[in-house]
Design a protein that fits this description.
The chain is of the alpha/beta class and 274 residues long. It is built from eight helices and 15 strands. It has one domain: Alpha-Beta Barrel (TIM Barrel).
């Protein structure tokens, strides 16, 4: 089995590296808010000895409703992400929605992310891969773990082995996602590290009619189960005031929960990995 090994900033990523965490708000709400969260991530990373990567989206292009807040857009969003990277020294990751965005995003961030709904878009995958930056691909809620082999092959065809795959739930009827924890090992067999998205896995897509619902209280439970099942990293959206979050308010996790959860997950990780 291949074992892709690479760095996102100073964070080592592979099938046998220490646990790492990608965390931040769902969408960029303001520069000050991003810096506040990122500064806390630095502190949590130092206290727990865990590699931290800041994540936030400059555009939520797939909101349930046109009334949903989408973010500051590409230009302003990248300015804010650059400021976070510069002022905190954290590695930064953000979503790419169109092939034309890939190069501009790669000039600023350390890792590009392909959203779950777009994970089969060949042009997008290849554009991200061709930047030479690490690429994190969310597994579509409509795909089996084994089908992610095709995603990996598309990126590798562009001579990029810096691939991560993220489990974020599978559709289970209407307005419901469930996690098959065996998917983590199945995707690891493809030779790429697997990340578990603990917060989006609690999402209830379209559950509020014009917005998605969620059960944020389940995120810590799922995160711990995923690490026990072999996840190499965690993806956790956090907010200082979750109820006031401008995107995914129902499933985004309070920032105050993060340090305890990372501490416990790191202990589980070390037991599982021996």
């Amino acid at each position: 089995m291949n074992n892709a090994r690479f760095n996102i900033g100073e964070v080592e990523v592979s099938l046998d590296s220490p646990l790492f965490v990608m965390a931040g708000p769902c969408v960029i709400e303001s520069k000050a808010h991003c810096l506040e969260i990122a500064s806390r991530l630095v502190e949590i990373g130092q206290r727990t000895g865990t590699g931290m990567i800041f994540k936030a989206s400059f555009d939520k292009a797939n909101r349930s409703s046109l009334q949903g807040f989408r973010g500051p857009g590409l230009e302003k969003g990248l300015e804010i992400l650059a400021a976070v990277r510069r002022q905190t020294a954290l590695a930064v990751m953000t979503d790419v929605h169109e092939p034309s965005q890939a190069d501009s995003v790669a000039d600023v961030v350390d890792c590009l992310q392909v959203p779950a709904f777009l994970c089969r878009q060949s042009d997008l995958l290849c554009a991200c891969a061709q930047t030479g930056k690490p690429v994190n691909v969310k597994k579509g809620q409509f795909l089996s773990p084994d089908e992610m082999r095709n995603v990996v092959d598309k990126i590798r065809a562009s001579d990029n082995e810096q691939i991560m795959l993220t489990e974020r739930g599978t559709f289970f009827g209407y307005n419901r996602l469930v996690n098959d924890m065996t998917a983590i090992d199945a995707m690891r067999q493809l030779g790429s590290p697997v990340v578990f998205d603990a917060t989006h896995s609690t999402q209830q897509p379209g559950g509020l009619g014009n917005a998605s619902g969620g059960r944020r209280e389940m995120a810590p439970i799922l995160a711990k189960a995923a690490v026990a099942a072999g996840a190499d990293g965690l993806f956790i959206e956090v907010h200082t005031e979750p109820e006031q979050a401008k995107s995914d308010a129902a499933c985004i996790m309070p920032l105050d929960w993060l340090e305890e959860l990372v501490t416990v997950c790191k202990e589980i990780f070390e037991v599982v990995r021996g």
